[in-house]
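Before we proceed, please read the two lines closing this message. Tell me what the token row says about the fold.
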Amino acid sequence: MTHQDAHRTAPIAGIDCVVDDEKWLEALPEIETLASQCHAAAVKIEPDLAGEIALMLCDDATIQGLNAKFRHKDKATNVLSFPSGDEQGFLGDIALARETCMREAAAGSATLRDHAAHLIIHGMLHLIGYDHETDEEAEVMEAREAEILQSMGIANPYEVAQDE
């Protein structure tokens, strides 16, 4: 039986981390646990996230290649999301770039842990259709991110950014 022939009676819940850049584990040793905590917190507030997600922890060069290939933007970015479409139980893939995440955390007032959590949650919401192309969409998405982060004891990154 091929993967596409497999039938699942219920979605598989969880987040599977693929460590493409081992330096993630040096910078944030608890990143895999953090990803699981983000997923659990997000599912409580956004039940549509009750499925399987693959999170690739990569470097800027890798995410730049993905960004160029899939979005036609030849530059690094902090996080990319690739919704699975109709595959039952699997929501999609997220890629998180270490160097960009570290730079943004250092430039802002968030710890690397808190900023990584924010980006993981941001990526997860993209998998289920949230977007920020318009001001209205951004407002809705940012509010949902802040709500999930608050449930984890993490400050609203948008309020912190406005205070600076």
The helical segments are 23-27, 31-45, 60-71, 98-107, 112-127, 135-151, 157-163.
